[in-house]
Specification:
The structure holds two protein chains of two kinds. By secondary structure, chain A is mainly beta. Chain A is built from no helices and 28 strands. Chain A is 0% helix and 38% strand. The chains are: A mainly beta, B alpha+beta.
């Protein structure tokens, strides 16, 4: 068994491959050179999807069925009804449905959720999310008004969650037909929304694969845990240098990883050197991890999808920075190695056992 | 007399070559500019969302030239095509 790490940047996509030791890496790329790659996903049959966009040419889905040798643009893509006034700007998140192998879900900007039941051949909006009475009060975050997090309960696929910046956190218990906003226990922010109920800035949410009632959130000024399927949230910030950041990942063993940044004015590593924080007790306490990171000061940042974990018995953890460096840990964060190459600004990192 | 149908060369930017069969030049038949653009959209469906938005409006930073003139500034908005005509899709450049 080996690992494939896919890295999306603002100028293309890069693939790194290694064996189970995850020490030596081979890189290919840039794939899709010149395209902004905000999202990547590999489905169970090995198709890799890339959500690409370009400031001139707009958003598209690209796929490869041969590990990146050949890429095709999908003819279909998510689209809002003409009378909505909304436009597809970027594809922020692509995931597979846990029990329907051909079903793909896409979170997009302007914020909405789309489903394809034929691996991208056609798309339908799950419009219960955007047709609610509060939609007109939604305001964008700094990165746009994006549905950047899409989660499905692996044990009960009718339960789904999405995170939208800068709007909040939503849960569906009927497979995405209807949605409830669960913002009440999240800190209110001055987003510009006239409605306090939708003035929340969720940065990233992860679900515990062993216990999907437990979710973890990196908020715009908060690290939070829910033990009731995302309905209420409490801070878990003991030992952290900052509660600001973007990514939140959880391994199959339940370890959490985040990359705390200085507050939103600067958005570089909180310790001013590369440091990842790990919790082995579901967020009760956090420990800094620096073994293998450069010791010199770092003023890079980490974007919301630029951290990933693999599914090997000892989970690997992967991190991409805004200054184009990729680091891999083969031992759940104990040590880190820099992968070859200096890439463009990294938007997303995904890791797959292959 | 009905206008003749011409075979017009279409030039596309390198970033869009994948959408027209991994080439920079394709040919589309039409007798007028409006027909040429409609046929281009239909013949190359992957190109359409890259050049035009969901409302089929030309994307903001793209210009289309008929020979050496932007079609946005033509006096005759739907000229009859000549055999030597070519159409170029151009990414507008500003700043840098």
């Amino acid at each position: 068994m080996g690992v494939l790490v896919a890295v999306g940047t603002n100028k293309g996509l890069f693939l790194f491959q290694s064996d189970e030791a995850r020490k030596d890496w081979e890189m290919t790329g840039p794939h899709l050179a010149g395209w902004d790659v905000y999202s990547i996903h590999r489905d169970r049959r090995g198709r890799i999807y890339a959500g690409t966009s370009h400031f001139v040419y707009g958003p598209t889905f690209r796929v490869t069925d041969d590990g990146g040798k050949n890429w095709q643009q999908l003819e279909a893509r998510p689209a809002y009804p003409k009378d909505s006034g909304w436009e597809l700007k970027r594809i922020w998140q692509i995931i597979s449905h846990p029990t329907e192998p051909d079903t793909i879900l896409a979170g997009v900007e302007e914020a909405g959720l789309f489903v394809s039941r034929d691996r991208g051949g056609s798309w339908t909006e799950l419009d219960g999310l955007t047709r609610g009475r509060t939609r007109q009060t939604w305001h964008p975050g700094a990165g746009g008004m994006c549905c950047h997090t899409v989660l499905v309960n692996p044990n009960n696929p009718s339960e789904m969650w999405v995170g939208i910046s800068a709007v909040g956190f939503f849960r569906s218990t009927d497979g995405g037909k209807s949605w409830t906003n669960h913002n009440k226990t999240l800190p209110v922010l001055d987003t510009g929304s006239p409605d306090e109920g939708t003035a929340r800035c969720v940065h990233k949410v992860a679900v515990d694969p062993k216990n999907p009632a437990k979710l973890y959130m990196q908020y715009h000024g908060g690290v939070l845990r829910s033990v009731d399927s995302g309905q209420t949230w409490k801070a878990i910030e003991n030992g952290l240098p900052s509660n600001f950041g973007f990514p939140m990942v959880v391994t199959h063993r339940g370890e959490l990883f985040i990359a705390p940044l200085k507050a939103d004015t600067t958005r570089y590593f909180a310790d001013e050197t590369m440091t990842v924080y790990r919790s082995k007790d579901q967020g009760d306490t956090w420990q800094p991890l620096r073994n293998g990171f450069p010791k010199e000061p770092s003023y890079a940042g980490v974007l919301r999808d630029s951290m990933a974990v693999d599914s090997l018995p000892t989970p690997g953890v992967y991190l991409g920075t805004t200054s184009g460096e990729v680091f891999a840990s083969p031992d759940a964060g104990e040590s880190w190695n820099r992968l070859p190459g200096t890439l463009p600004r990294i938007h997303c990192v995904r890791a797959y056992a292959v | 007399m009905a206008p003749y149908i011409m075979r017009i060369q279409i030039n596309v930017p390198s970033m869009l070559a994948h959408a027209v069969g991994d080439t920079r030049h394709v040919y589309v038949e039409a007798s007028t500019l409006t027909e040429l653009i409609r046929n281009l959209q239909n013949q190359f469906p992957l190109l359409r969302p890259l050049v035009w938005d969901d409302q089929l409006q030309l994307r903001r930073h793209i210009m289309i030239f008929l020979n050496d003139q932007s079609v946005a500034w033509l006096d005759d908005t739907n000229p009859t095509l000549k055999e030597s005509d070519s159409l170029s899709i151009v990414q507008a450049v500003s700043g840098g």
